[in-house]
């Protein structure tokens, strides 16, 4: 066996999965067909849940300091502001901020963390075939070499080779025509305290500030219906419609670093696991970029899968634990697809009635403070709970499956720490020594004991490495839950 796990795809999802597996003591190799790291920004918003995942991987680094704190979206009709949404702390106990930051920078930070853990992406390695048997998976590369792994995870994007080779179905529909996407500088500059958007009969146009005085421009435009245009054509089209839709005739786009064009599709894999092959991120689900949910959902996939796969690889859990990955994550992807599809249809409303509904009803509704709090809460994904899944449960809150916030804690020696800082490839017991010993009997050295500082003593809690509650109670309840989940 060359490695315990072979990860195909060195984007944020594949890199996060590899880091998490190494934290859990599992060997991993990461291959990618690209010749080297991507330099374009692609996704550019990391919500609080994504920042938490990076923090638990010890891969957050200086990203919060590098990011742009643009936490508002102002929508205009010409020069008249129609709606302003303010994002903020949803009050769910997180120390990890949402960030406007290039995906390329997130990937660079993850590669740095991967190197610290002893791994590195292997570039220019294209997967051409795979064969699995009861003991593992044999992956064949374009140069004829093979890699033998116990498990293989496809994190290779919406056009996933792994998904096709392993026989997963990927049903879905096309939601919209094409959008233009351009990164560059604007003169004179717009307000960099937030994103600006313009509702226009020909299509919506948005401008998001990026680090380094850059702007991300996004515009719905059905002009290009034939062959895919080049970057120069896309840029010139954006320069043409920019003053038309914003009403800012003096606005100039220059120093363009990237230009692309895409159509919005909604697709969801029929399964996340086929034997020893699994899918994560865009390989399993694709949707519109509105709301910044793509990279966020993929990072959540990687963290959820990592601790389960690590337990199976280390012989601490049966393979059926991996079925809970799909059971917990696929329903969330379904919700994300529905929400992003609805947002797309609102933004590209073409009929007079659709524009009236958007501009006169929905715009006013989203100016309400309670709607803005709901929007922050929803897009953050801090609300995600698995209480209805196979590892969840009932009872008083927090319930098994619920997310546990980043509590201020103390170690057994009295030194201060935070819960999420201890969940780096570890489980945590917030409780007495007896509960800790019950968890350690099944989980070995992958569990730490903590005490929640400033909180009244209650039932002991066993917290999963992804910060969700496994169970609460005492040694008997811990043993019962672990026996049921891992057997």
Structure description:
Strands 1, 2, 7, 8, 9, 10, 16 and 17 form an eight-stranded mixed beta sheet that branches. An eight-stranded mixed beta sheet has the order 5-4-12-13-14-11-15-18. The protein has helices at 12-23, 48-56, 63-66, 103-116, 161-166, 231-246, 294-313, 323-347, 352-365, 369-380, 419-422, 433-443, 475-486, and strands spanning 3-8, 28-31, 45-46, 72-77, 80-86, 99-100, 121-122, 127-133, 136-141, 146-154, 172-187, 195-198, 205-210, 214-220, 252-268, 273-274, 277-279, 285-286, 408-410, 416-418, 427-430, 447-452, 460-463, 469-473. By secondary structure, it is α+β, with helices and mostly antiparallel strands. A hairpin with a 2-residue loop joins β8 (127-133) and β9 (136-141). It starts with a strand and ends with a helix. α1 packs parallel to α7 (294-313) and α7 (294-313) runs antiparallel to α8. The mean pLDDT is 88. The protein is globular and about 70 Å long. The protein has 13 helices and 24 strands.
Key traits:
single chain; globular; 8-stranded mixed β-sheet; 487 residues; 33% helix
Question: How does the SSE layout of this entry go?
Answer:
Layout: E1 3-8, H1 12-23, E2 28-31, E3 45-46, H2 48-56, H3 63-66, E4 72-77, E5 80-86, E6 99-100, H4 103-116, E7 121-122, E8 127-133, E9 136-141, E10 146-154, H5 161-166, E11 172-187, E12 195-198, E13 205-210, E14 214-220, H6 231-246, E15 252-268, E16 273-274, E17 277-279, E18 285-286, H7 294-313, H8 323-347, H9 352-365, H10 369-380, E19 408-410, E20 416-418, H11 419-422, E21 427-430, H12 433-443, E22 447-452, E23 460-463, E24 469-473, H13 475-486
């Amino acid at each position: 066996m060359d490695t315990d796990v072979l990860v195909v795809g060195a984007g944020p999802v594949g890199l996060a999965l590899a880091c998490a597996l190494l934290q859990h003591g599992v060997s991993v190799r990461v291959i990618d067909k690209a010749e080297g790291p991507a330099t374009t920004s692609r996704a550019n918003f990391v919500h609080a849940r994504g920042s938490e995942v990076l923090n638990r991987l010890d891969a957050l680094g200086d990203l919060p300091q590098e990011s742009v704190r643009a936490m508002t979206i102002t929508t205009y009709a010409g020069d008249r502001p129609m709606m302003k949404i303010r994002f903020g702390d949803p009050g769910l106990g997180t120390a990890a901020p949402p960030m406007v930051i290039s995906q390329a920078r997130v990937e660079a930070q993850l590669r740095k963390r991967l190197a610290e853990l002893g791994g590195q992406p292997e570039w220019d390695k294209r997967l051409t075939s795979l064969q699995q048997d009861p003991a593992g998976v044999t992956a064949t590369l374009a140069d004829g070499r093979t890699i033998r792994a116990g498990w293989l995870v496809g994190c290779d994007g919406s056009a996933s080779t792994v998904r096709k080779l392993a026989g997963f179905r990927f049903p879905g529909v096309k939601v919209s025509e094409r959008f233009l996407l351009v990164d560059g500088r604007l003169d004179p500059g717009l307000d960099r305290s937030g994103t600006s958007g313009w509702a226009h009969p020909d299509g919506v146009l948005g401008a998001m500030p990026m680090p380094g005085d850059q702007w991300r421009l996004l515009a719905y435009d059905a002009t290009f219906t034939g062959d895919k245009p080049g970057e120069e054509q896309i840029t010139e089209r954006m320069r043409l419609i920019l003053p038309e839709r914003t009403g800012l005739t003096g606005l100039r786009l220059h120093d363009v670093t990237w230009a692309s064009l895409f159509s919005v599709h909604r697709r969801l894999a029929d399964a996340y696991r086929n034997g020893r092959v699994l899918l994560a991120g865009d390989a399993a689900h694709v949707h519109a970029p509105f709301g910044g949910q793509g990279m966020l959902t993929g990072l959540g996939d990687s963290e959820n899968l990592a601790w389960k796969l690590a337990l199976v690889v280390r012989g601490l859990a049966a393979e059926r634990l991996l079925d809970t990955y799909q059971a917990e994550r696929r329903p969330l992807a379904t919700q994300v697809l529905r929400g992003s599809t609805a947002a797309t249809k609102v933004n590209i409303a073409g009929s007079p009635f659709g524009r009236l509904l958007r501009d006169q009803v929905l715009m006013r509704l989203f100016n309400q403070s309670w709607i803005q709090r709901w929007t922050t809460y929803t897009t953050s994904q801090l609300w995600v709970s698995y209480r209805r899944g196979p590892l969840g449960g009932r009872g008083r809150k927090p319930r098994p499956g619920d997310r546990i916030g980043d509590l201020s804690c103390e170690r057994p020696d009295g030194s201060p720490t935070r819960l999420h800082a201890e969940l780096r490839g570890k489980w945590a017991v917030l409780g007495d020594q007896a509960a800790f010993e019950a968890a350690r009997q099944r989980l070995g050295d992958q569990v730490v004991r903590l005490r929640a500082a400033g909180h009244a003593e209650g039932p002991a809690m066993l917290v999963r490495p992804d910060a969700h509650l496994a169970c609460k109670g005492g040694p008997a309840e811990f043993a019962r839950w672990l026996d049921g989940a891992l057997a």
